[in-house]
Design brief:
Rossmann fold, Dna Ligase, domain 1, D-amino Acid Aminotransferase, Chain A, domain 1, 4 domains, 17 helices, binds ligand MV4
Amino acid sequence: MQKILVANRGEIAMRVMRTARDMGIKTVAVFSEADRNMPFVRYADEAVCIGPALSAQSYLRGEKIIEVAKKLGADAIHPGYGFLSENAGFSKAVSDAGLIFIGPSGYSIEMMGSKIAAKQAAKKFNVPMVPGTEDPIKDLAEAKSIAARIGFPILIKASAGGGGKGMRVVNSEDELEQQMQTAKSEALSAFGDDAVFIEKYVGAPRHIEIQLIGDQHGNYAYLFERECSIQRRHQKLIEEAPSSCLTPDIRKAMGECAVAVARSCNYYGAGTVEFLVDENLNFYFLEMNTRLQVEHCVTEMITGIDLVKEQINVARGNKLSFAQEDLKISGHSLELRVCAEDPMNNFLPDTGKLEMYQPPKGPGVRVDDGYEQGQDIPIFYDPMIAKLVVHGANRDEAIERLCRAIDEYYIQGIQTTLGFGKWAVQHEAFRSGNFDTKFIDKYFKPELLMEEDPEREEVAALLSAVIWEQERKPKSAISSTNGSATGWKLRRK
Ligand code: MV4
């Protein structure tokens, strides 16, 4: 493997290309018309525009991307996350074109893409699952009898769903018929597949996932867990490794279950097995993500493993470069997703220009970003502009570091989730480790960020200085103390 085409954009394209360079591998970027001036386009050894801004006309054009790879002599394609990364057809098409797909086989992607098939496969390995079904629901009568057996509330899930898409909570039997119909028709229009299954609804679980990697010779290792409970509408905001709630025994049991799930579909490459964990630390298999995930960095920080390097290693057909016994958890890592969203306004995407952009630096701080100062954040893609990742000797040190790094992070021109992140990690529930997936719903109110907003504090300080100055020298210097003269302006529109 001497040249990798990265079929992605932004921070993850940068992330993958950096490791490729570390390994002496050349890189090809493909980009949309909206991304012409992005750092990842400049960083690549070669770059090709593949179409207009809309993803469907650029980053999702698998055949076009394969054509570019062949034309430029790339011998492998890394899909990053999102876009084509979990498209079984794309994985197959890349292999059929004689190129290496840096990720799992089309077979594994397809099998894990069907949540019903995934549960059936996992069941054969005695992986614990929430009470419910591993078969599609045939009709209302069957749904009723399952619900009667496991008890309300239940959750109807789309087999083709995942990541929270196509789920309905049903609290009682009189809601069942309606919710089944809605779930099925939503699943059909969203995924072209109306198969649904039922699980007992776990009220306030933690979301913990196991990172693993397998080679093409049947060797596997798990790289411990990531806690991803701090999320909003299935959008993760803060992730950490290790979780503050697992014991070494449970960690090992979950790791071994995750490897069993991977084995059940002859998996190779990096992958993640998601679990729900209840308040008694019972864990249940949810689904498998067959890609490198956004939050992979916290795992890299605590294990010292470069996951992209290892993905490339196994994609080349080599054996895993380490064994399970070689791995140990070192310290603690936290990641905050820095998104161009306004937490004061329902986390709505806030596009605009990055008027100022200065990422933090220093001990234990890693920023994976994809934009630079002066650039516009396009509306066409994910609003995540960077990941702020910290590492510390222990959880408290990691939290302190994250707060320090947030304070150093200087962004103007758009609203971001930085202030939210500082509020969250300082919250008593987060600090104590006693939280679940309801954390944001339970504790977050936009008003809580008023004092957290450094810009507001700066403006307040500036105003009081102006007033003080005016009162001190009532007849002079007033004209030079307006906002524009000092270069300060209110960011909030
Ligand atoms: C659940 C659940 C409760 N009970 N399944 C959401 C994402 C998808 N992977 C599965 N999800 C859930 N499945 C049962 N039986 C609650 C969720 C869930 C959730 C899971 C992980 C992280 C955040 C979540 C937020 C709401 C619901």
